[in-house]
Design brief:
By secondary structure, the chain is α/β, with parallel strands linked by helices. It is built from 7 helices and 5 strands; from the N terminus they run ααβαβαβαβαβα.
Amino acid sequence: MVRAPPEAGIPPIRAESHGEVACRKSKDYERRRLVAKPETNYPETTADEVVARMRAGEAMVLLDVRTMSEFRAYHIPGAVHIPIDELALRYSELDAGAPTVVVCEHGVRSAIATHFLRHLGFEGCINMRHGMSDWRGPVEGLMSYALDR
């Protein structure tokens, strides 16, 4: 038997009953899971929409949250580079009132960064879904000649 400390208030569970453990969901567990669910209703845009906005001359900040090596390889011209692991320390470098498109390689890190920035009051911050993997606009960087986008 596996026993939790008495202060945890969890009944003992037999270690060999994996099915029982998987099925044991108390109301409290469900409540905590739902409360901890992250926001998923932040605005998103596509790479094609961003290219169209750039060609139309729309003012916006392009925030690239990829690693330094990813950014050096190729990036959108004029993009601001703040790796996601530095964002909590460097977000003050950004203008909270400016429309901001957050970009990474596949859209996962940028979704996290968008959620974080919107929580801090960056209301004009949107995620570029599918990130640079879907980008067909201009690029700069060490590998830009090979991409021929």
